[in-house]
What does this fold into?
Amino acid sequence: MDNKGVLVCGEIVEGKLAPITIELLGVGRKLADGLGEELSALLMGGKAGGLGQEAIAYGADKVYVAEDSLLDSYNSDAYTQMAADLCRKELPSIVLLGHTDIGTDLAPRLNGRLGGGLAMDCLGLSVDAAKLLVSTRPVFGGNAHATMVSKTARPQMATLRPKTVPPAKRDDARKGEVIPVEGKLDPSALKVKVVERIKEEVEGVKLEDAEVVVSGGRGMGSAQNFEVLKELASVLGGAVGATRPACDEGWAPMTLQIGQTGKVVSPKLYIAVALSGAIQHIGGCLGSKYIVAINNDKEANIFNVAHFGIVADYKEVLPALTAKFKELL
Amino acid sequence: MSPVSVTYWGIPGYAIFWVLFAIAAVLFAQRLYFLFRLMRLGKAENRFDRIGQRIKAMLVEVIPQWCNLKTVTRKDIAGIGHALLFWGFSLFLISYIIFIGLAGGFGASSAIEGTNFEVVYFSILDVAGVLVTIALIMAAVRRYIIRPERLEASAEAGVILILVFFLMALNVAVVGFGYAAHDSNASWPPMGAALAGYLSGSGLAQGTLEAVYQAMWWLHYLVIIGFMVYIPRSKHLHILVAPLNILFRPLGHKVVLKPIPLEEAEYFGAAKIQDFTWKDLLDLYSCAVCGRCHASCPAQLSGKSLSPREVVLNLKKHLLETGPELLAGKAEASSESKAKAMIGDVVTEEEIWACTTCGACQEVCPVGIEHVRKIIELRRNLVLSQNKMPESAQLMLRNLQSRGNPWAGVQSLRLRGDWTSGLDIKVLAEGDKARTLFWVGCTGALVERNVEATLAMARVLKAAGVNFAVLGDAETCCGDPARRAGYEFQFQMMAEQNIATFKKHGIKEIVTTCPHCYNTIKNEYPSYGGDFKVVHYTQLIADLIRRGKLKLTKELNSILTYHDPCYLGRYNGVYQEPRRALQAIPGANLKEMDRSKNNSFCCGGGGGLMWIEEQPGTTKINQMRLEDALKTGADTVVTACPYCLQMFEESIEHKDIKDSLKVKDLVELVEAAMKRS
Amino acid sequence: MNIIVCVKQVLDPEIPPAKFKIDPAAKKVIPPPGVPPVISVFDERAVEAACRLKDKQGGKITVISLGPAQASEVVKHAISMGADEGFILQDEAFEDLDSFGIAYVLGRAIQKIGQYDLVLCGRQSADWGNGQVGSILAEILGIPVVTLACDIEAADKKLKVKRIVKDGYEVLEAPMPSLVTVSTELGLPRLPAGMRIMIAARTQVPVWKAADIGAQAAELDKAKAHTEVTGLSVPSRKTECEMISGDSPGQAAENLAAKLAKLM
It folds into this structure.
């Protein structure tokens, strides 16, 4: 195989390396060491240059830096072109991205352009005896796990789910190379333009960072009823989440959707209210330390994954729960 | 001498009589013709079949006034009053024809006046007049003093009461003044004769008496023909229309939903008033605003905005408002006139979706109005052509489409055929044939509490040696929720599919535990080519007990009360068999709820409302029904419908009285009574 | 507007988790008997997006599905929602294809259909969920691609696409033709209106074989097995749930709060 080395496609968020990139560098280093090959990183965007050293400190041997102004904010065509050009030149064996807004868009396109093999939303990455990348990922809504390999197609690609592997350890003494990427992008090749970015203002704690999440499902009944969840969440210093059916009904904004498509959270306490516990949703909260279920159907699947449960109408439980927490905390 | 044969200021009385009559007749006929033409705007419908049976049914309802007497209860005796009014007024009507028409207008007075016939008849009229007056006073007291919920203290009703009273009074006055003016000392009819006696002794001149007599006569005549003109312009139109409406009532099955023909149409269901059939429009004319439907509607009684009476009256008003333009040939009311949308302005969506299709309104209506199918026709337009329905309805219908059952989310717990596992019963596979099918229904197969009843039924059937098979996984919804929600084509597809399945397996007889499936397969599948013998399990069980195939030996010391499911009772007339089955259980003490049998109060689960979220009201329908059950002092509510079972479980849970009241399906009690002690 | 929508028929995602069975040796899922497969949830949204555009702009919606003969059910479902016609791509040569293979076959079918302004796909399939076919297909067709759309509008030969991101939306402008992958945030798909259910039920869905769309065996072989599944397992996730009770739901709530407060 002409392809060698592990390449991490990094992301820059607010002028810093994104946490997922640091995680990728960690797992990338392990893979590279397992293969006896190099770990490189590709950083695209205006701030890329300043972060090269940091990427090295986190384990990269080489950092490719592309500072074309067209890359300042994520543009699908631009990033795909840049990454594809680099991969065709450097021929990495493994390319890793985060399963993020950028990764879910960039990875398939890059894979399509390069003709490699891609596994998305991976929970684990390893190298097997045949020195192939083995990706473990959830399938069928999370009901099963599949392991996938690409025997011959190159590069072997994977998008990694955030917060499933520990971040790389920083070693500022590490040495490496920062290589600026040559070649300008042709603006006329960018067919799709970003016209606007709308941020949904979420009050209070961000869902992905919350230590406590209170989620509502189909059994909530209305948008109005979500107020009781907000009260409980605020007493506990947490955030409110929702299942896809609840978001479909318009009871909660999409940005609060937890599940197979939507956000994956792993708080200390996850309180599942009036949701049945469909596998597609559970996949988004299984990483929680304690799962509590409140549902008036004792056969609901959520009780199979919860640590604590109350079988009752949430309308009769939540006010008392909120009041008691207020008292105790 | 009849006042008609007198000449007044040079004008012969006959001329006055007939000119006045002609004017009144023209006004009367013109209005009726207008209403008739409006009615003809409606779609066609065949209600002329089995005309002999229809006439007989109508005569039985109208002449003995069964239409009103059927609704007499301890709290509402108005039906008796109306019967008196009807019979009394009928006698008066005949008297007008003979004594005013023939004797007066046609000048046959000499042949009629002074005859024994006249005396006898007028004496009878005295009695009738007293009874009518009593009825009028009763009516006035009820309407204006007691003011029950269902009656409006309207001006129109007052006018009618006063007019009828005038007719009674004037009748006596005419006789009295007539006798006095003509020096008659007849003593019959008693009231007229008494008045005459008083007048004779009053010292009034004969000329004066004659003049007043003539004035009274003509006043009486004017009120009569005035009434004639007023009738088709008021709610008293029901006098003329109600008997016809009863004549054209559905024979047998009460809620007749018509399949929608599979042809391209601009839209489906009823969006405009002329989308209803002529019978629906005739219904609107027939309404006497008695409000009985309003007072028995579970949605209304639990505080929702829906009132069957208001729906009918609003549609009637809408017909009369838009009628003239429609007759003039304009397809829709022009923008200059108040262009009201029938769905939205005349009947709101909220009202349309509150109906449980329980049929209490139709049961209690004296004039045979079919309320339920109008609601369904409106739903058809909303769902099929406007894509507007409550979210819960849409979710249920989408689930029905993709999964063949309406229970979203519950499917995540069990599959259709799971209940059969471990049981030694025949599950039909490809190519199998069976004569009798036990059709379980979606709820009985998928919802845990109801599966318990299904299992009990299977065991009871086996114990009784009934040879039956089930479809297991291959069973899909009968389509009832789709049809009641107005999603007619989905229903049609499911009906055709199920009929094909039944035929494929050679099924001849179907036993089911769900009254909705029972009603749908029995009464509605024939329109789609499916003709099977359909039996509700309570009928089968009652029969098996009677034949000795089921022996109930274990004593059940319980006070029971039986809740009649709407789709079993009112829709299909099955009241006795469940009771017979329960009474065959040793030690069972059966107490009836106040509202039972055809008066049963809905559990709230029909019409798709098992899934469509109940609107906010003052209370929930199932909680109201629970109160009815609690009043009997029973410790167990028994029902024969999976929705009713669910609704009771929910209301018992909500009131937290599980320890003192249980709800059981009838088959569960039967099975318990079969076990050896 | 001419729109092509790619749909897939999958195992019903709402089966009870306890019924989900796999054959680890064959690395396949065993569908429980008597459960009809359904249209992939994201593909249904793609059909809905197409119908919304057709409502506004008029035009034609063609639906294609790569699958067994039974896949005609999902094509009919799309027709009941508002699609004009559909085809299934069924051939022995189409079995066991991975994302590249599927994209290749879909690409050939699209080329056979001819003129189009927009291709819509679900963001991923509701079963294997690889999430790549759309992007690879766009690459094959040589058209731009926008992923994770929750809203699509068309005006002046351009597409305005709202895309889901972690904390909000992006609005992008793409030329026609483009490929857009659709996510569930688009909203609930419509209930088939009027007689469409019956029309769809009575439709015969044509089958296209490899020869019909000019799918070359050599290309299919090349497209095969960029990735393969080497193992399939069901993670065990039973936890012992401690049920908290009380005299009333409110009491139970207080007991729960007390317990959790200690753990936090």
Observations:
- The CA atoms of residues 593 and 632 of chain B lie 6 Å apart.
